[in-house]
Amino acid sequence: MASNLKPTPVERKLRARDPLTVGEVSARSGIAVSALHFYESKGLIASTRSAGNQRRYARGILRRLAVIRVAQRMGVPLGVIAQALEQLPKGKAPTVADWRRLSAAWRDDLDARIQTLTMLRDQLDGCIGCGCLSLRACPLRNPQDIMATQGPGAHVGG
Ligand code: FES
User: Fold this and answer.
1) Does 103 or 144 have the greater pLDDT score?
2) Boundaries of each HTH merR-type domain copy (predicted)?
3) By CB atoms within 10 Å of each CB, which of 4, 19, 74, 88 scores lowest?
4) Within 10 Å of residue 55's Cβ, how many Cβ atoms?
5) Ligand 1 atom at shortest distance from the alpha carbon of 134
6) Cβ(138) to ligand 1 under 6 A?
7) Band of the pLDDT at 57, cuts 50, 70, 90?
């Protein structure tokens, strides 16, 4: 009797194309439902609605979410991620070529941020044990040497 309830290969194939509920997406991606709603509110992902007004997601959403999470781990701002994903067809999974292109672009950003953070760390080394927090002398307070552009004379905050 139970074997009659087993889906046939054709039924299984059709179900594999069914859109996913928000709970299924959450379970498969490991991302909380609240985060999925947040991503949707920011335009990073999109859903359709079922007859009962429930969210439904194309299966390509899972690769799209993988791209979002990896980019977030690299510190790519959500706005930049959204812009990048806008270039992809709606509801389609990012292809291998899409991911290669996006990850190459984000690597350059990551290099730039590493360079900035390394410089900040080195400057912080000079501050440790100093404590002056001087607008004139401390490179962390005056990173672009703003005082130099304001000409001679007294300045606030020194
Ligand atoms: S606190 Fe003195 S140089 Fe930064």
Assistant:
1) 103
2) 19-87
3) 4
4) 20
5) 2
6) yes
7) very high
Q: What is the pTM of this model?
A: 0.72
Choice from 119, 124, 125, 138 to test ligand 1 binding pocket (greatest atom count within 8 A of CB):
138
Answer whether 135 contacts ligand 1 (Cβ < 6 A).
no
Q: 142 phi and psi, to 5 degrees? A: -135, 65
Higher-scoring residue by pLDDT: 154, 90: 90
CB 136 within 8 A of CB 158: yes
Chain segment 58-80, per-residue pLDDT in tens: 988 999 999 999 999 999 999 99
Atom of ligand 1 nearest to the CA of 132: 2
Q: Whose C-alpha lies nearest to ligand 1, atom 2?
A: 132
> What residue ranges do the domains of the chain occupy?
1-94, 96-150
Q: Both tokens of residue 103?
A: 């990850």
Q: What is the arithmetic mean of pLDDT over 41-47?
A: 92
Helices (H), 74-145: 78-86, 96-127
Query: Do the Cβ atoms of 98 and 129 come closer than 8 Å?
Result: no
Asked if residue 132 has its Cβ within 6 Å of ligand 1, the reply is yes
Give the bridge partners for 48, in sequence order. Answer: 56
